[in-house]
Amino acid sequence: MKEKLQLLFKTISSEIAKASTVAELDNVKNIHMSRKSELNNIRKNLKDLSDTDKKIIGSLTNKIFQDLQILLEEKYELLKTAERNEKLKAEVIDITLPGTYIPFGKLHPITKTINEITEIFQGMGFSIASAENSPEVETEYINFDMLNFPKEHPARDMQDTYYCENSDNIILRSQTSGTQIREMLSKKPPIRIISPGRVFRCESISARKHNQFHQIEGLLIDKNISFSDLKGTLNEFIKIYFGGERPTRLRNSFFPFTEPSCEVDVQCIMCSGKGCRTCSGTGWLEILGAGMVDINVLKNVGIDSETYSGFAFGMGVERMTMLKYAIDDIRLFFNNDIRFLAQFRGR
Ligand code: DAH
Prior knowledge:
Radius of gyration: 43 Å
CATH topology of the largest domain: BirA Bifunctional Protein, domain 2
Number of helices: 12
Shape: rod-shaped
Bound molecules: 3,4-dihydroxyphenylalanine
Strand content: 15-25%
Strand order of the largest sheet: 1-5-6-10-9-8-7
Number of strands: 10
Structural class: alpha+beta
Order of helices and strands: HHHHHEEHEEHEEHEEEHEHHH
Oligomer: single chain
Largest sheet: 7 strands, mixed
Number of domains: 2
CATH superfamily of the largest domain: Bira Bifunctional Protein, Domain 2
Helix content: 40-55%
């Protein structure tokens, strides 16, 4: 019995020594130290031995049990530490390594300009027109008729319009001015809105022209509004947008929906007024059209022109952006070339 116990001790202790993972050691423990193990059986059967044997074998079994327990604990400690070290080594973070660059999306330069311009006008008490009054698919009636473009009048040819197939009335809007009509039809004066949006014209695409671009429309209707209010508003806007240093001029013009009408030019940013390709040698670039709302337009929307008057203006967003950042090709805004767009980071 004694030998058997000693052999058992040798076997188990060598299995403990051989275990190379915590899981393997668990296994050794389950097989040899559980209640059904051989060692435990010997212990259970001690009662059948003679008194002297009981004493000797009993204390030997206990000793073996205790020794194995100690060996197990030591081995557990060793394996757990080793496994923890292994894990730490695998998970080590070198905080001196450069991080992974995660590119951020930024606003498109056109969106930035729209935000900037609308904020300036919001500061002057204008609010943004409701989106439902600014549809890109529009009727010819709103886009032209209501804005006092006479039927068959060459003024309609100023803007080469996209007509929808099978319809001589539904168009892609050629200007945001239709929003003026929709606003005046849906609201009572005083009205003070601006409305940014996309417009479409059947143009061949070049560095200076595109068949889609953006405009910002403005409209103010109230009592006692005169041309000097228009001039003051536009001057203030231009001063803020261009920073006050760029010379501007007001020029007489014609639009069917304003009377009198004018256009505003800023000095060419490319040549500083000397005359170049961008400004066709004139030294000036047109940035917006404006005027006093024509009495016929007020009549069309049912506003009493004896009580109310107002002004309107419209500007090209691409043009405003090109002037501010000296961009010489309108197509850049639509190509989505990241090398171009990335230059507007952080602005
Ligand atoms: N809609 C005109 C265009 O596309 C621009 C314009 C001119 C808008 C005069 C206006 C305005 O509101 O009063 O050329």
